[in-house]
Write a structure and sequence with these properties.
With 120 residues, the chain is mainly beta. The protein contains no helices and 11 strands. The chain has strands at 2-7, 10-12, 18-26, 33-39, 46-51, 57-59, 67-72, 77-82, 91-101, 104-110, 114-118. A hairpin with a 6-residue loop joins strand 4 (33-39) and strand 5. The N and C termini lie far apart (40 Å).
């Protein structure tokens, strides 16, 4: 099993910045993908950014140019640097881990979520 612990959420003014961190522990392995999703009230959970085991990244159009995802393989962590935050970025942010196998997601694991609120 894999456990994920997120940190770094909070309240920030529009235009501000936050960094979210997610630490993985347990049977993490060497080949795994990680990502950040978010869910606003009344909305479905959506992908914000992902990073593969080869450090290939993908971003939602709404955050391109503002958010940066990175990974630290030594410490088994993933971070999401969020700049120029907007009120529409307000949501609970979830860290995700899985091991890719062809088109399958093995050990698909979610963190507990961290609240990000962008408001003046």
């Amino acid at each position: 099993q894999v456990q994920l612990v997120e940190s770094g959420g909070g309240l920030v003014q529009p235009g501000g910045s936050l960094t979210l961190s997610c630490a993985a522990s347990g049977s993490v392995g060497a080949i795994y993908n990680m990502g950040w999703y978010r869910q606003a009230p009344g909305s479905q959970r959506e992908l914000v950014a992902s990073i593969s085991h080869q450090s290939e990244t993908d971003y939602a159009d709404s955050v391109k140019g503002r958010f940066t995802i990175s990974r630290d393989n030594v410490n088994k962590m993933v971070r999401l640097q969020m700049n120029n935050l907007k009120p529409e970025d307000t949501a609970v942010y979830y860290c995700n881990y899985y091991r890719p196998l062809f088109n399958s997601r093995l050990l698909d694991t979610w963190g507990q979520g961290t609240q990000v609120t962008v408001s003046s």
